[in-house]
Amino acid sequence: xxxxxxxxxxxxxxxxxxxxxxxxxxxxxxxxxxxxxxxxxxxxxxxxxxxxxxxxxxxxxxxxxxxxxxxxxxxxxxxxxxxxxxxxxxxxxxxxxxxxxxxxxxxxxxxxxxxxxxxxxxxxxxxxxxxxxxxxxxxxxxxxxxxxxxxxxxxxxxxxxxxxxxxxxxxxxxxxxxxxxxxxxxxxxxxxxxxxxxxxxxxxxxxxxxxxxxxxxxxxxxxxxxxxxxxxxxxxxx
Amino acid sequence: xxxxxxxxxxxxxxxxxxxxxxxxxxxxxxxxxxxxxxxxxxxxxxxxxxxxxxxxxxxxxxxxxxxxxxxxxxxxxxxxxxxxxxxxxxxxxxxxxxxxxxxxxxxxxxxxxxxxxxxxxxxxxxxxxxxxxxxxxxxxxxxxxxxxxxxxxxxxxxxxxxxxxxxxxxxxxxxxxxxxxxxxxxxxxxxxxxxxxxxxxxxxxxxxxxxxxxxxxxxxxxxxxxxxxxxxxxxxxxxxxxxxxxxxxxxxxxxxxxxxxxxxxxxxxxxxxxxxxxxxxxxxxxxxxxxxxxxxxxxxxxxxxxxxxxxxxxxxxxxxxxxxxxxxxxxxxxxxxxxxxxxxxxxxxxxxxxxxxxxxxxxxxxxxxxxxxxxxxxxxxxxxxxxxxxxxxxxxxxxxxxxxxxxxxxxxxxxxx
Lengths: 238, 417
What we know:
The complex is a heterodimer of chains A (about 240) and B (about 425). Chain A is α/β, with parallel strands linked by helices and about 240 residues long. Chain A folds into two domains: about 1-80 and about 155-240, 3-Layer(aba) Sandwich (Rossmann fold); about 85-155, Helicase, Ruva Protein, domain 3 (Orthogonal Bundle). Chain A has ten helices and ten strands. Chain A has helices at about 45-50, 75-80, 95-105, 115-120, 120-125, 135-150, 165-185, 195-200, 220-225, 225-230; strands at about 5-15, 15-25, 30-35, 60-65, 65, 80-85, 155-160, 185-190, 205-210, 210-220. In chain A, the strands form two sheets. Chain A has a six-stranded mixed sheet with strand order 6-7-8-3-9-10, with helices on both faces. A four-stranded antiparallel sheet of chain A has the order 2-1-4-5, with helices on one face. In chain A, strand 4 and strand 5 form a beta hairpin. Chain A starts with a strand and ends in a 6-residue tail after the last helix. With about 425 residues, chain B is mainly alpha-helical. Chain B folds into two domains: about 5-60; about 85-410, ABC transporter involved in vitamin B12 uptake, BtuC, CATH 1.10.3470. Chain B has helices at about 5-25, 40-60, 75-90, 100-125, 135-150, 155-175, 185-205, 205-210, 235, 245-270, 275-285, 285-290, 295-320, 330-345, 350-365, 370-385; strands spanning about 25-30, 35-40, 215, 325. In chain B, helix 11 (about 275-285) crosses helix 12. Chain B is globular and about 75 Å long. Chains A and B meet through helix 2, strand 6 and helix 3 of A and helix 11 and helix 12 of B.
C-alpha cells in the first residue's frame, strides 16, 4: 500500500544535539498512528521535523508520494498537513472565531470547514465570540485542533493533546479524534505521553526511545507487550 | 492599606526624593569672586520632599480602591457618534472663525503625527514588531521627495508615490536582517537602523548636503495651479484675492487626506487575512508557523506598509518645510511616535489619534512654560500609564464577528509589552 506519509532514515537535531536518529515510519491513509515515548525522547522534534523546523539532516520525508524534506514550513502545510502544536498555542487575544478563521486563511482558504468543526466541538460554538485566552484548557485544546482542521488537512498532527487536562476532558477530546477518523476518514499522527489512552485509540503505534524507534506494532499489540506496560504504563494492569 | 504602612511607605518615598533632590536642587553653584560658590536651597528640597510624601500617601490611601478609570456608560454610547463628529470638526476646521494661521499650522503638525502614529501602529500595534527606528523611513520619504524634485524637477504628485515606494523598500531592507529577531533584540536593531540612516544623511554631503540639509524644495500645486500671487496661480484661476493662507489650507487638507488614507488602508487590511495574520503574529509566532503562515512575507509586508506611510508623511514634511536636514530625524522623533502608539493603545486607531492630539497639541499649549514643558509631558505619560495601563483606548474590536461586533475589554489587551 502507498503510505500517505513516510519517513525514512531521518536524523535531526539542534546544534550538537542529535534528537532523532535514523527514524523510519509510515502513516497510511485513514489511519490513526500514535508515537509514544518518555519525556525528551524526541516525539515533538519528530513532528516538528515533519514540518521542516528543524530540518532533517539525513533521510527522506515524503507526503503523498512527493518529497517534502527540503520544503519551507508554510509550503509543507500547504500540501495538506495541519498541526495542533504542543501547549495548544491559541491566539489568546483573538476570539474563538478569529482563531478558527486563521486556520483556514493562513493557507488562503475561505473557511468552509467551520460548520463541521463546530459540529465536532459544540463547545466552541458556545464560546464563539469569546477571547481564546479566557477558555479553559480543554476548550483551548479543542480550539487548537479545530483551528488545524479548518484548512481541510489530509494529515492531522496532534502534539500531546492530553497535556495538563482533566481525565474527563481528555476522554472527550480522544472521543472527538476517534469520531473524526471514523466519520471523515481523517488520518492522524498522534504524539502522546499518555500511552495507555493513545494505544487504545490508535490503529498502530511506534515507541520512541532516545531518538530511535525501538518498537512498532498495532495499538492493541503494543498495549499487551510487558515491556511497554513496565516502561510506560507504570506496570499497572491499566 | 493600613495607615501605618501607608505612612511608612510615604516616608520611604520622601527619603528617596531627598536623595534625588538634595544634589539636584539643594546645591547650586554660582559664580562668585575668584571661582564658584556653592549655595544651598534647602527650603526647596524640603517642599519637594513634602510633596513626594503627600503624593505617595495619597496614592497608597487610594490603592485599596480600583485605580483604573473605566469609561462610563454614557460615554460609551456617545462614542459611536464621537468619531463622525471629530472627523466633521477636523474637515471644517480651516473655516471656523477663530482658526488663524497658527492654529492651522498646529493642526498640520498634529495630523502629521497622527499619520505617523497610524503608520507605526501597523508595525507595532498590529504585527507586534517593536520598531524604535521608525523615523528612518520618515527621513527616507523626505529626502526621496527633496532629491527627486530638486534633481529631476519631478512634481510632488509624481514624487509622493515614489517616496512611498522607496521608503517601503527601506522597510524591506530593514526587515530582512531582523526577521529572526523578536522583542528587545528587534528593538535594538531597529534603533540602530534609525541612527544609521541619520548618520548616512549627515555624512553623505555630496548627495544630501550633509548637516546643511537641502533647501528650496518645491511646493506642491493643486492640479498644476501654484499657490503664488502671479497670474495663472491658484488665486488668479478661481478669481480670489491672493492670500498665503490658501497654501496652508491646501497643506492641511493634503495631510488630512494622507492620514485618512493611512487609516482607511489599515482598517481595510485588518479585516483581510493579511491583517489577521499580523495580529496572529503578534500573539504567537510559533502557532503562526504551525498553521502554515509564511512568517517572512507577513513580517516584511508589515514593515513595508508601515514604512510606506512614513515615506508619504516624510515627503509631505519636506514639501511643507521646504527645507530638511538630518536634525529633523533624530531618535526623539521615533520615541515620540512610539509614545503616541503606546499611549493611544496598541492597535487602536482612535486611541492613536487622541494620543497624538494630546502629546503634540498638548506640548504646544504649554509652550509658554519653556523647559517645564518636558516635565509636564513626562508626568502626563506616567499618569496615563498608571490610570490606563493599556493605553487610552485599550479595547480591541474583533475583525470578524457574527452579528454585532463586541469590543474586547481592555483587560484582555496587552499591557506593558
